[in-house]
Design goal:
Layout: E1 2-7, H1 15-28, E2 33-38, H2 40-43, H3 50-66, E3 75-78, H4 84-93, H5 98-102, H6 105-112, H7 119-134, E4 139-142, H8 147-164, E5 172-175, H9 204-212, H10 231-237, H11 242-254, H12 259-273, H13 275-286, H14 288-317
Parallel strand pairs: 1-2, 2-3, 4-5
Bound molecules: adenosine-5'-diphosphate (ADP) and tryptophan (TRP).
């Protein structure tokens, strides 16, 4: 099954991204033909300057490779390294009714929030359609907010195929299995915009400091602690199997330990889970040439497919 995912590179990744997006994506590479690209043309819609966009693109590559994206199994590239996608974007524009774009939730949300819009924000779903159709994608794993974009892609592909022949594979969205929303240090959804995130890669001291900031109730030492609603417990539970969760619950109930102990324990869990990723990341950060080679190899594979597809598309429409 050919599965395609697009990564929006937007800075430092946190524990919520790790459990909510990175781990599930990486699991897909085992049983599918996974195509993953860093969507830097898309990021341009929110980019402030060249340096940041370049840096975020490299950071995303390093971080995904570090947590286990395997370039031998997965075709991994930077979107703009296969610029054919922009040619297809223009061609698909002709098959995308204005009304369809005007009904896009993500665009309407931005307008409602008073964000200054521009044509790239408006036509964003057409570029996403090009990403998907260029590579004969069968499945697109997405969050709920992106389902509509995949449905629009199907509509566009059907319209094209009806007029010019069966050129495009019709993709389906797959809503990733409901990943629980990971709480931040204040118990709200962890998000980089709420200043409540625990970043994925920090040094050990900074990580402990961040864990110490997790808001907990103030039960005096010696009394049993509530674990059900405890932010520390809920975060630790992400790393534990059923048996280990029961053990931790017992420790909460025993009254022998305070929140400080559990914050230390949580730090240990995070630190350990990311041990291998941290080592790989250090390696990649000091071997960015290798990262660029991996991305170039991915772009080459992707381009071969894109070129063949574009030849068919151009021939079909008379270009
Ligand atoms: P942020 O809210 O920090 O800006 P993004 O919107 O960039 O995060 O999210 C990138 C990916 O990580 C998305 O697939 C999103 O569903 C996932 N994700 C982000 N925060 C969480 C969270 N707290 N729990 C689960 N998944 C999350
Ligand atoms: N729009 C997606 C997001 O915001 C990223 C993306 C771009 C994408 N092109 C794609 C995802 C194609 C899947 C397929 O997360």
């Amino acid at each position: 099954m050919r599965v395609l995912t697009g990564i929006q590179a937007s800075g430092k990744l946190h524990i919520g991204n790790y459990f909510g997006a990175m781990k599930p994506m990486i699991e897909l590479q085992e049983e599918n033909e996974l195509f993953t690209f860093i969507a830097n043309y898309h990021s341009l819609t929110t980019s402030k300057n060249a340096e940041t966009l370049r840096q975020y693109t490299l950071d995303a590559a390093v971080d995904y490779l570090s947590v286990g994206l395997d370039p031998e199994k997965t075709t991994f590239w930077v979107q703009s390294h296969v610029p054919e996608v922009l040619e297809l974007y223009w061609i698909l524009s002709k098959f995308t009714p204005m009304g369809l774009l005007e009904r896009a939730h993500s665009y309407k949300d931005k307008v409602a929030k008073g964000i200054a819009t521009n044509h790239a924000l408006f036509s964003y779903p057409v570029l996403m359609a090009a990403d998907i159709l260029l590579y004969d994608t069968q499945k697109v794993p997405v969050g709920k907010d992106q389902i509509q974009h995949v449905e629009m892609t199907r509509d566009t592909a059907v319209k094209f195929n009806n007029e010019y022949g069966e050129i495009f594979v019709l993709p389906e969205h797959v809503v990733a299995e409901e990943v629980a929303t990971i709480p931040g240090i204040d118990g709200q959804k962890m998000s980089k915009s709420y200043d409540n995130a625990i970043d994925l890669f920090m040094d050990e001291k900074a990580l402990q400091k961040r864990c110490n900031k997790i808001i907990s109730s103030s039960t005096p030492l010696g009394e049993a602690l509530e674990w059900e609603e405890c932010n520390i417990y809920n975060m630790a539970a992400l790393f534990l199997d059923a048996e280990q969760k029961r053990e931790l619950q017992e420790r909460y109930k025993s009254g022998k330990e305070g929140y400080g102990h559990f914050k230390k324990y949580l730090k240990e869990l995070i630190w350990e889970e990311l041990g291998e990723a941290r080592e790989k990341r250090e390696y990649y950060l000091s071997h960015t040439d290798e990262v660029n080679d991996i991305l170039a190899m991915g772009a080459k594979k992707a381009k071969t497919i894109a070129d063949a597809k574009m030849e068919k598309v151009r021939a079909a429409i008379g270009l």
